[in-house]
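Case study.
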Amino acid sequence: MLTKNGEEQRSVQTTEALASDQRKQSSNKGQCSLDFAQDYAPALESTQMVSINSRYDLFINGKQQAPHSKSYFQSINPATGESLAEVAIADEQDVQLAVQSARNAYDKVWSKLSPAKRGRYIYRIARILQERAKEFAVLETLDGGKPIKEARDVDIPLAAAHFFYYAGWADKLEYAYPGKSVRSLGVCGQIIPWNFPLLMAAWKLAPALACGNTCVLKPAETTPLTALLLSEVLQEAELPPGVVNIITGTGETGSHLVEHKGLDKIAFTGSTEVGKAIARGLAPRGTKLSLELGGKSAHIVFKDAAIDQAVEGVINGIYFNQGHVCCAGSRLLLEESIAEPFIEKLKARMQNLRVGNPLDKNTDIGAINSKAQWERIQSLIKIGKQEPGNFFQLDTKLPEKGYFIAPCFFTDQSSSNSLSQVEVFGPVLSIMTFRTPAEAVVKANNTQYGLAAGIWSEKGSKIKDVASRLNAGVIWANTYNKFDPGAPFGGFKESGYGREGGLQGLHPYLEVVH
Amino acid sequence: MKVSKTIKLYIGGAFVRSESGRTVALDGSGSASPRVCLASRKDFRNSVDAAKKGFAAWQKMTPFNRSQILYRMAEMLEGKRHEFQAIMPDAEKAGSQLDEAIDLFVYYAGFCDKFQQLSSSINPVNGPYQHTSTPEALGVCSLVTAADTSFADLCGCIAALMAGGNSVVCLLGPSLSPLLGVLAEVLQTSGLPGGCVNLLSGKIDELHEVIAGHHEVRAVACLEKDQASTVKMRELAAGNLKQVLPYLPARSIENILNYVDYKSVWHPQGC
Amino acid sequence: MHQVKVRSQQGFIPIPHVPIDAVSLSARTKTFKTRSIKKDSKLAGLYLAIQMTDLTTLEGSDSLQKIRGLCTKALSPVSHAFQLSLQQKRPELPPVPRVAAVCVYPNFVADAKCMLAGSGVKVASVASGFPAGQVPFAIKEADVKAAVLAGADEVDMVIDRGAFLSGKYQQVFDEIRGLKEICGDAHLKVILETGELGTYDNIRLASWLAMEAGADFIKTSTGKISQAATMESTLVMLEAIADFYRAYGKKVGMKPAGGIRTAKQAIQYLVMLRESLGSEWLNPDLFRFGASSLLNDLLRQIASQVLGHYADQDQFSMD
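After joint prediction, the assembly is written out as follows.
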């Protein structure tokens, strides 16, 4: 700290250096003390490049159309609690219109187009997304509350990359199934969640289009805006009308879509509960279905791990995107002999997590996506506190408005604790210990889910063995929460079926002809 | 005077009576004709427990060994040709069915150590990571035959599920249950660990609920086509998110790949 | 994993093997780089970086006049006129601070000491057969002794990387111990020359070895090979320092050296320091930059931050 009179002063802190909260709230008035230990000055991303309409209609047959329902709902910025825009609610007739338009487009245009041309349209979408990336990033942050650095560095680039990757598949499908031929399915109904709004739209649309299908996409109720902005991109790319239709609304709109008899395929990403209901609803028809559902993924740290990097992995695993990640490493399994120092390191590391305005480029943890989710997480934390175990939460000042929760964890948990079983979908970690690799595997697999798992060890043969015994579709060894268009994603057991991404991600959108 | 016999269920590598004690005469023609057991829900649950053990044992074997055992099953089937023909009603058809079944065992035997290579991928991710996707067996699968399922299709489906590394609980309908005993002897004498394949005879209408609802059964291979009971099974299976999948009466890798899950593993590359 | 142990008067000291995952390490450093440091946070970082700078010249062509120029710059990094213009714009700002030290060869320690007397700017000297460390220990001892006798406040020694890489940890340990003793009150910075150690695991091991042997600071590089300080190697060392502090309660300092030329880089290092070791390390007693051209870029950035425009290179002394 350097003060006006030029004297050097050592900042004196009584708390232990490595675990101290380094954020100091304000400096003395009247004297400028330049102190790098103070909280970083706000670095707000400008919102100027985004123009948000006051009202958004449905995107059907290549045009923005007012809903038959004539009703609208508010899309809220969860960081302020304020409304951003009103968004159309699609009713049964709107759904009918959208499916019909997708059917027409499939029959008359898209299925007749050469695969190479299909690919060209998808490439165009990718490019325009890249060019308008910043606009999308800011809008994603405004609508969903995620930190701008994540929207900017993860969501939007990956969404564009997904379109880019699958664009190239369009005219190479025959290589994916040697000795067989494949054909498109027809019209796909796709329902996506609110945690990665644009990215999930890309995960759904890109492979479906590349395989020659047309789509009706239903974005999540709390985060419709980037999908609606995507409709502008589709227009800009001159995608033939009706190839992609985007219908907004509540869960009821989603139900109408799932119940529509004119769909050849349904893809759903969301909760296991809704996934089961959809599967049940489709039973009589046998419509092709892929599901990407919940998780309670185990993150295993062995004592021979690269510990400091494992700490990073754990932090990233659970606090990335406020923990609104289906594959979040929400159960930490620590080898008992290192549990104590590891938890100390975790606590120290958490001191550097900045919770706050999602538009601040230095924010690590943004707003909880909605009031409802905020309430759900708070109630689960309350339950966790009533059960055996200890609770730690980062002591930090949260914004007064909006929905925020400081990152936290429970220690001394067992598999019978509620928080070891229930998917929280928030910045809440449940920590358990194990003694042997076999015990780690048993505990990791002790869940209805099977989406993802993490393993940290520097012993190669141990990683191979444990990875082979974990019931999870995605295994991150010595890393976590990595995503790529070329990487198949999806779970075992009640985490769903089908894969998104990569070569295997084509399969849900094709029929193999013998 | 003929000695009548009851064809037992085949669970965990052993011949057992139904715990329910229920049997039914095969063709309903007199007391001397063979009877088959009517498997109960409890028999099914016991079979799943046995199949879990069988799955672990089957997984422990190398793909090469699994391949050898499937081939051995073809050999044993050949060795029991006369017994099968004696039971099958239409002798002419029986011969071709048997030929086809043997062929299918041989076909899928050859896939045990190949489908992984054909369906795995090394994924070119954007970063310093090695990323691979490989198929893994689902676990315990259930196989439900239809009234018109042929012996060859039954054997093909069993072979495909096993080639993928799964263990199987089969429910045979009335047309196939007379063959249960001989087929079980084939399984038992081919070096297959107990529990890998379990054979039940019974009524689908009594059991579809427990089959679809059992959380430890990871998939149902349903040889029925959109019968009411199939729909019912799909509805019930939705509750634990298992898929009720078809078997294609053809020689196809799809019959294996429908019953695997892909596991994708990331690992950094750096020193 | 074979356990590294070294012998000391107190008995055997285990040197823990701590594996480092290179990819994850690198990803972590990227998070520091993406911090957006603006306004007074940036200014605070620029001021702090100046205070932490070891203004360095280590050339075969160094002469008395060269050292004189360096010391003058260390004493008054900016002109009076520049200082005035800053104060006109932001009267509440403290004056542009002085650097922490000048870093020279032993031959120039006495002169530098004389020129900087009473200023608070320390004199650091490289010694111990810098930069290779491939001379007999007796010569290293003599080298350090000469620097200390000439008045060096700080000694920057090099480890014998050849010895380290061939597993002669005891030798490396003993040499550091021995030179530390000769240093007396002078602070000892131990240069690991991370660019020659080959792996992050080795950097971590060497860091711990040096700290166990009594290093007051650990330092990345000599600046004499092409691969100097990187964010990654520095982070490995910072994490070693953190663990050493947890184990012994002793705060060891860190000095990345070489390759840090821009204010932007310096601020990224400070962000890394702040978010790894914490605010208690944010001072010149525990963190230094070994650099020669960094200072002027820091000054230019201060000018742009306060005055709102980029200063001409020639506004600052090129000495």
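Observations recorded in class. DSSP finds 14 helices and 20 strands in chain A. Chain A has three domains: 1-39, 55-293, 298-484. We will return to this complex in the next lecture.
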